[in-house]
């Protein structure tokens, strides 16, 4: 890849991209002469050896001399003939040569190479502190630069040289090599909340012209989340071997898609957040390999779930007896938590269910008053209940409200219990 130089310069830059070679495949479809007479099932590997091994002519160039000839691979590799497509997440590697095409040597050559984008300039090479002493006539100076591509859009590789020519004049040579970085993948996500679980579906599509082998598609959750990868059940002979030699997922060229499903749960030690705050679930780490194992890596932006809508005050069950007898008082331990950043209280615990219809009711004082809670503070307390009917019954209607303003904060989720008679 070259760039025109301005003025009369002794030196010139030449740039070649360093990337993995590709397979050289022969376009013609080869065949065996017996295919014209008998079916392919008639042939064996021994039958496919033709007696033209020493024939250097082209009369048998369409004939199968070996079963592997049907693949169309010649056994040769092709070096990149152009800059090619450069994708986000790859490592751009370039071999740069500065040539002296004049009859005089160039001395004290200071070489710089940098990548320029719309947002930044990244220095790749600078020989200011140790200039190249001389580049003789017809000689050259070669070097390699690398850059991890992290931005989309136009990029410019800027190569400059400051040198003394044959007349002792100090000259400055700039050359520019432009290329565009495209997006190899598109990631589409869907978030669904089902009760206490959040499900994240990620769909990854290949936009390149080559197959991609996905080495890793990992979801890194935010600190308040735990994640489980959900996969379809597959029969495997040895799970230990499968874990060590996990085959990569194939994304076919030009639109191949792979889907991934993750189950997320809030951790028990989740710090309280504001009810109107956004819910950051985490981000995806994606690594792949393309042509002959050339690696690539992408990290998505933060994936957002539904806004968190936690109650200011949460009332939940902490402990309940294993055995509950008919018309015998029993204690239920409840937990009251302040999920805001301010002090709230005092609180009143009461039952909102009609006592005539309630099978499980508060035993004793119907209203229990609790002291205020500081920000992010919680407290446990016992509630004395009694059951008046045998069998499977339901505890419901236990509510916490503000003791002064009578504002309702939360209601305990309905809980089923089994009431037995004393033996």
Kindly describe this structure.
With 423 residues, the protein is mainly beta. Helix content is 1%, strand content 49%. The chain contains 1 helix and 31 strands. A hairpin with a 5-residue loop joins strand 29 and strand 30. About 3% of the residues have low confidence.
Keywords summarizing the entry:
mainly beta, five-stranded antiparallel β-sheet, six-stranded mixed β-sheet, elongated, single chain, 1 helix, 423 residues
Briefly summarize what is shown.
One of its GO terms (cellular component) is TRAPPIII protein complex. The chain is mostly beta strands and about 425 residues long.
Q: Are there runs of 5+ residues with pLDDT below 50, and where?
A: 54-58, 270-277
The proportion of residues in beta strands is over 45%
The profile of the biggest β sheet is: 6 strands, mixed
Helix content: under 10%
């Amino acid at each position: 890849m070259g760039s025109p130089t301005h003025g009369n310069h002794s030196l010139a830059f030449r740039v070649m991209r360093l990337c993995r070679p590709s397979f050289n495949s022969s376009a013609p479809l080869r065949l065996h002469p017996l295919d014209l007479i008998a079916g392919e099932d008639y042939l064996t590997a021994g039958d496919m050896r033709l007696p033209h091994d020493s024939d250097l002519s082209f009369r048998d160039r369409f004939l199968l001399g070996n079963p592997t000839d049907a693949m169309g691979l010649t056994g040769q590799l092709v070096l990149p003939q152009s800059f090619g497509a450069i994708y986000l997440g790859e490592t751009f590697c370039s071999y740069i040569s500065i040539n002296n095409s004049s009859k005089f040597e160039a001395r004290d050559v200071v070489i710089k190479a940098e990548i320029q984008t719309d947002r930044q300039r990244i220095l790749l090479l600078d020989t200011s502190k140790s200039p190249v002493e001389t580049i003789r006539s017809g000689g050259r100076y070669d070097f390699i630069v690398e850059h991890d591509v992290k931005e989309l859009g136009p990029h410019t590789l800027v190569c400059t040289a400051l040198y003394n020519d044959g007349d002792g004049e100090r000259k400055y040579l700039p050359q520019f090599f432009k290329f565009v970085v495209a997006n190899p993948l598109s990631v589409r996500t869907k978030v669904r909340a089902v009760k206490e679980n959040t499900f994240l579906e990620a769909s990854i599509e290949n936009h390149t012209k080559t197959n991609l082998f996905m080495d890793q598609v990992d979801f890194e959750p935010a600190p308040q989340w735990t994640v489980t990868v959900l996969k379809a059940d597959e029969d495997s002979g040895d799970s230990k071997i499968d874990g060590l030699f996990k085959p990569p997922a194939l994304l076919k060229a030009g639109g191949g898609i792979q889907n991934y499903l993750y189950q997320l749960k809030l951790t028990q030690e989740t710090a309280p957040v504001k009810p109107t705050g956004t819910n950051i679930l985490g981000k995806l780490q994606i690594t792949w390999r393309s042509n002959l194992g050339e690696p690539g890596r992408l990290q998505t932006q933060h994936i957002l779930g539904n806004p968190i809508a936690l109650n200011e005050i949460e009332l939940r069950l902490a402990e309940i007896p294993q055995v509950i007898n008919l018309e015998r008082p029993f204690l239920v331990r409840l937990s009251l938590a302040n999920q805001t950043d301010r002090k709230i209280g005092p609180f009143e615990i009461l039952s909102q269910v009609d006592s005539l219809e309630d099978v499980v009711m508060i035993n004793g004082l119907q209203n229990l008053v609790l002291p205020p809670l500081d920000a992010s503070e919680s407290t446990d307390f016992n509630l004395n209940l009694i059951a008046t009917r045998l069998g499977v019954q339901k505890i419901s209607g236990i509510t916490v409200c503000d003791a002064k303003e009578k504002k309702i904060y939360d209601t305990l989720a309905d809980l089923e219990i089994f009431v037995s008679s004393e033996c």
